[in-house]
Design goal:
Shape: globular
Order of helices and strands: EHEHHHHHEEHEEHEHEH
Length: 279
């Protein structure tokens, strides 16, 4: 087994996956326990949320927001979609949580020497946007909220006045982004088991969704094929020994909107143990 060794070219790529991101929480808590920092980290959707706590060095914070808060506040469900037009309680997750419940350490993040990027998808172009923001708390929240805004079940978010949605639509596993910036010694954290593929056909986009944004509709329709291509590339480079992949070892029983905290805790523990084996 190839061990994780940090070099100036080391990058950490964090896939999304909704509640499956608790696997990533376990990985990141293990990295923090071992004092492992990457020169460059990039996160998508749930990966962007979890990565922020890693960058500020707040061990356990991402796990708390995903598992403990779910048990207490039940922030996912149809009641939120019906009441606020959002499958998740974003007011709780992106305002009450970072400001009051378990405040985010913006100062630690601003002062860390490593690069952190978060990925969104532009509704106008259908292309991925990559943001590196450390100074403005409001803009940080705008970006991570946009990165986590799932199509169809979350409202469009805005960054600098531009309409955005979930980064995973355009770039689910931003390995090529890391490599383009010179980070060629990468660790990729996935939230699906090896061999997983999405259905290899275009996703259907109902005609009443996003009529103003034809490029976004095309990106959503093409997402499955894009994701499968990215996974194939990751597996090919992994087989060549050019990167390390941390992933669940068995088919995932946790859904994107999972509310069973026992399942979530088990997946978090698996993430922690998986990372520990590579250190």
């Amino acid at each position: 087994m190839k061990k994780i060794l940090i070099t100036p070219q080391s990058g950490l790529i964090l896939e999304g996956g909704g509640m499956r991101g608790v696997f990533t929480c376990g990985v990141l808590d293990c990295l923090m326990d071992k004092g492992v920092r990457f020169p460059y980290t990039i996160g998508v959707s749930a990966g962007a949320c979890n990565g922020l706590s890693y960058m500020s060095g707040q061990r356990g914070r991402a796990k708390f927001s995903t598992i403990d808060m779910l048990e207490q506040y039940h922030y996912i469900g149809m009641k939120h979609l019906i009441k606020k037009g959002n499958i998740m309680d974003f007011d709780l997750l992106f305002h009450d949580f970072p400001e009051r419940i378990l405040p985010y350490n913006y100062e630690a993040y601003a002062n860390c020497g490593e690069v952190y990027e978060m990925v969104t998808t532009s509704c106008i172009t259908g292309q991925a946007c990559y943001y590196n923001e450390k100074q403005s708390p409001k803009r940080i929240i705008d970006i991570v909220k946009a990165s986590s805004s799932l199509p169809f079940v979350c409202p469009i978010a805005y960054v600098d006045g531009s309409p955005m949605l979930d980064g995973g639509i355009a770039d689910s596993i931003p390995l090529l982004r890391a490599r383009s910036l010179g980070y060629t010694d990468n660790v990729v954290v996935l939230t699906r088991n090896k061999g997983y593929r999405k259905e290899d056909k275009p996703s259907k986009v109902p005609p009443f969704f996003y009529r103003k944004y034809p490029e976004l509709r095309h990106a959503i329709a093409s997402r499955n094929m894009m994701y499968n291509q990215q996974i194939s590339m990751v597996e090919e480079l992994e087989d060549k020994g050019e990167l390390i992949v941390l992933r669940p070892q068995k088919p995932i029983e946790v859904s994107r909107m999972e509310r069973d905290t026992a399942k979530l805790l088990a997946l978090y523990d698996e993430g922690y143990q998986t990372a520990a084996a590579y250190l």
